[in-house]
Amino acid sequence: MTVRSLAGLAALNLAYVLVGLSFLWGVRGFRTWGAVLRLTGLGYLLGVAAFGVAWTALLAAGVPFGGLQVVVSLVALAVAGVAVVLLRGSPVPRGLALPRGTPMLLVSAAGIALTGLFLEALFRAARLHSLQAYDAWAFWVAKGKAIFFFGSLDEHVFTTTPNATYPPLQPILDAAAFHAIGGADVVTLHVQFWFLVVGAVAAIAGLLHRHAPPWLLWPSLLLVLVVPRFGERLLVPQADMLVDVFVVVAALLLALWLRDRAGWRLVAAAVLLAGAVNTKREGILFAAAVLAVAFVVSRPRDWARLAIASLAVGLAILPWRLWAASHDLPSGTPTSFGGDRLADAIRLSFEVLYSTARWSVVPLVATIALVAAAVWGDRRLAAFVALVSLLLFAGGVWSTVGFEELALTADESGNPIVRYTGSIILLAAVAVPLLLCSVWRRGEEP
Predict the structure, then answer these.
(1) Taking the model in full, what pTM does it have?
(2) At the N or C end, where does the chain have fewer CB atoms within 10 A?
(3) Which phi and psi (to 5°) does residue 34 adopt?
């Protein structure tokens, strides 16, 4: 690891930020630089998703992947965002609109400081983290190296490695990171995953900033960062964390869209879900669950816009599916639902969901918050979170039942149920501040 490699990674991730912010500037507009700062994390995730989706399509079409092509594509994506800004006539941001000095500002400062300490410690770990997880070295990083060295979706690597049906967005990000680093350095690669963690935290905090008080926001966010299952796997170079972040932040955007009908939230959610379906096979199930529930809890007049967003997400997965079909890769979906494994699969899913050894108190707190919001708070929000969680839970059960080769165990080497459950836990942690805030504010009403 060298200063040059770290600087290269920093430049690459700054480019993701600029791409995403140019997109947000075009579809949303920014009145103040404070708004730009608040949505920088979301902009970062949008930039990552847009870059990954674009290159999935380009690689499937046979376009070579190299350092120059990475730079050109990032510039092109940023220019496209600026073009939207010019077409819409979005004004240049002015001023910072700094918050006033209140006790809540001190709580925010404390939360940011504690989160910063955690992220600083995580960075020091990332700088020296070795490649240990089986899935990481067996196929995730191996695919990234193939794109880096061969500049393409190498047929041998992408059809013979384990889990060949997984889409290539995460390996594409790995390959771009290798170009930024200056070589296939699998130790320094872990710093790229640190950037993803920072971007996810900033995106969630920025979106919740005006919708939940700091004393609800920061404890929930800090808790989910340090629970055993998340805390020990934040830097593992696999796609599990990224697909969860894409889906959960998209779900958060849709939950807020159901409140204010701000069109930019729906557009941003569609981009993130497009990233999710190109990141992991189960990302398709996750995206379908989120969009289906949005249809259920929204008003009929909103269905046309939701349908357009759903169509865009569906089209985003087509390039990879066409490439996979042309190379005789199976769909990778479960083949059945039912049989004598169903009861055991449901029981296993419940045990994993409410495992304090893995998730600490997050599931219990989320359940209490969900019930409280359903009774005394925002019932539409509670219904959205509950239905999405239920569908994700059902997806985990379906996976255990449908793949008969999976053992009825919580051991991740024999069953991915823990990874399915991680998306529910992250959604719960993000939703708790909104759910409890709706109860608290309803209680303040005369």
Answers:
(1) 0.94
(2) C
(3) -65, -40
